[in-house]
Structures are given as structure tokens and as C-alpha cells.
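May I ask for an example protein's residues together with how it folds?

___
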Amino acid sequence: MSGEVVLTDDGALAIVELTHPGKYNAMSRAMWRQLAQVFGAIQAGARWRCVLLRGADGHFCSGGDIAEYPDFRFDRERLRGFHEDEVWGGLQAVIDCDVPIVAAIAGHCMGAGIEMASACDIRVAADNAKFGAPIAKLGFPMAPREAALVAGALGEATAREMLLEAAVLGAPEMQRRGFLNATVPVEELMAHARTRAERMAALSPQAARLNKQTLRALKRPQAQDGSAQAAMQLIVESAYDYADSPGHREGIEAFLAKRPARFQ
């Protein structure tokens, strides 16, 4: 079995589970392709208000499935295709998803795991979670797009520590460094993550999507003339197109009427 990325429809929540028995949910090549398909389906759908990403059997993800590596890693073009098409294809689908994503992290969160967590919006971890990317022990670096994603979420100092020292850090330290939003006892992780996901699912889906689009745009390279002002102007051009939308009207009208908003 090469593992699976399983999507479960749970009302307003989309539950995405990484499962690879016996390998702490290590990502196989098939799983990277499935990740892209699953998040593409979530992005295309309209019924989900939040995504909960988790791993099976007490672990998030231990990295890549190293047993597959001899089949392709020693050929330049096949290695490039793996990272640029399969791995980045999966990660890009997570990044491009306009639905808020909560990562619930327990146990191992290494390499591929920390890359996927870096692509999520909210990260909560069990107190037994361990984070790192000790691939220097395997003799190869992190691919450029993946390194940029991780460094952006971790901060450059922590990224350098993980990549250059093969450092492995615990959840409390990762929260102190700003990577995690919360650390809870392992037995409370799923309840805590679900509560946060349900709280987001009750809010305006339009506001969530637009906020994610804006935050994503702010991370893009600057406009062609190189100025931050021009880059911001590109964002501002369409920033207020929601003015006459039903969701916008409902939120304001519900507040003024002192009733809960009913977002569609």
C-alpha cells in the first residue's frame, strides 16, 4: 500500500486525513498527487466552510516515503519532476485553497509534514509533536519552492536551524517561535482543532475567501516595475468588488438587527 489522502464530508467541514500505515503517514508519490486532487475538489466545491487536515494513527506526517527514492532520485529530470510537479503540485493546491485550513498536528511532523503544515492557515499541535526537516542526514537539500514556503512560515532563523543543523524541535518551542497557534495535551488535540474549525465555519465564507486571496497576493513578487506601491495597487483594483454581495449585506443587516448572521 502506498498510502492515501482521504477526504471526508462532515457537513460544513472537509476532513482531510493522511494515512500510510506503518510509515507514520510518510508521503508517497501517489499521496502527493492525491493531495492535489483533494484540495482541488475542495476549492471547486461550495459546501465546505473550513478544512481540517490531520494524520492517522497519532502522527501527522514523518516526511517523504524514502523507500521510493532509489527509483527516481538519482536522475536529474525525474528528480526535478518529482519536486516541481508532484510535491509542489500538492503543496500549491493547499496554498491556492480559499477555504480556511486548520492543521491538527500530533507525533511526527517532519520534512513533507512541515511543508504541508506551512501551507495551512491555523496550526495547532499536541504536546508530543516533533518538528524538523533533517534531510541533510540523507544527503540532499530542500527543493527551492519548498524551502521558500517553509522559511516563510517558520522564519529564516528556524529554517536554517532545521536545514543546516538537522534540528528537531518540540511543540512548545515551535509555539514560542510563532509557528503554532496553540499547543494542547495530545488527548485534547482533535477537539481543540475541531472547535476552531467550526468557529471559522460559522463566519462569512466570502470574507474568508477574500482574506485568503489578499494574504496570498501580498506574498507574490512585486509588480513588474518592482515597486511595492504598484503591487498593492494591483490588489486594490478588485478589493471592493464584494460591495453589493448577499454575504456582505447579510453580515451588516444581521448586526444592525441584533441577530445571528445566516451566511449562505
